[in-house]
């Protein structure tokens, strides 16, 4: 959900897999990292509200190589090179629930992934990871969530309003276009639902309280899209949650403090992973 967009970095070739979702077929862009590490923990990366495979740049590779892990990176429908939103498709308040309960499991099924994976989510992707862990505990080994949203805060809405202004009045649309085949599909799907008055009541604290997987929750102390109440809310509800609150860090810890994030995530996964 970060409107501060850097230049694209090197990303390897991606593939697309068809997934049937709500009686239509969408093609989801994805990329494997080190699949030859067949006995290593699998980390599935879930991107932010304006993200994609390319937006992650080389961070998933850095994390996986440091920890000797396997990785799976993908672009949700409407993002990256995945199928864009339909011309009349408007996202509802439950759009993250739909991704967690339906799209991500169907995507993993399409690739034949049956093992319990580690979910590494950022922003909206972190919320989706939490929702999936609550609904599908048998498919989730553990969680690393950065800048997740449990509920809607005024600061979040204010900065998403600023992002809309930037998209309409600056070169933000051009910058985001480097990461998405249909940039309007990605931006307006995200922006309009977050600014919908009905979305102000969105809250996943009851679902988070159902999680029993180990969780590492990371947030920047200078996060412009949410306060530390978000990750502290996870710690209040999920036993054994580890918190990492990073100074001099905004909404994207993996960009602002990549070494600290990698070190914490690798140590957490290695400490809590249970071999199949």
TrEMBL record:
SUPFAM superfamilies: alpha/beta-Hydrolases (SSF53474)
Domain AB hydrolase-1: 41-155
Any one Gene Ontology cellular component term annotated for this protein: membrane
Protein name: Pimeloyl-ACP methyl ester carboxylesterase
InterPro entries: AB_hydrolase_1 (IPR000073), AB_hydrolase_fold (IPR029058), AB_hydrolase_sf (IPR050266)
Domain of life: Bacteria
């Amino acid at each position: 959900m970060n409107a501060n967009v850097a230049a694209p970095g090197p990303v390897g070739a991606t593939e697309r897999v068809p997934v049937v979702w709500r009686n239509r077929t969408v093609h989801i862009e994805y990329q494997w990292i080190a699949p030859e590490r067949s006995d290593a923990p699998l980390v599935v990366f879930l991107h932010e509200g304006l993200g994609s495979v390319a937006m992650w740049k080389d961070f998933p590779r850095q994390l996986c190589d440091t920890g000797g892990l396997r990785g799976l990176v993908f672009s949700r429908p409407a993002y990256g090179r995945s199928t864009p939103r339909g011309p009349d498709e408007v996202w509802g308040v439950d759009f993250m629930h739909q991704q967690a309960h339906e799209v991500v499991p169907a995507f993993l099924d399409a690739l034949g992934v049956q093992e319990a994976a580690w979910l590494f989510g950022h922003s909206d992707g972190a919320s989706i990871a939490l929702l999936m862990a609550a609904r599908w505990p048998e498919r989730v080994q553990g969680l690393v969530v950065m800048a997740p949203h449990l509920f809607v805060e005024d600061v979040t809405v204010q900065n998403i309003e600023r992002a809309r202004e930037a998209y309409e009045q600056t070169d933000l649309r051009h910058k985001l276009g480097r990461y998405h085949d249909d940039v309007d599909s990605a931006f307006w799907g995200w922006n309009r639902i977050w600014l919908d008055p009905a979305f102000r009541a969105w809250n996943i604290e009851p679902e988070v309280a159902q999680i029993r997987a180990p969780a590492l929750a990371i947030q920047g102390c200078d996060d412009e899209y949410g306060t530390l109440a978000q990750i502290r809310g996870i710690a209040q509800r999920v036993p054994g949650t580890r918190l990492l609150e990073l100074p001099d860090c905004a909404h994207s810890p993996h960009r602002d403090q990549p070494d600290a994030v990698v070190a914490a995530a690798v140590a957490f996964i290695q400490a809590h992973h249970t071999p199949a």
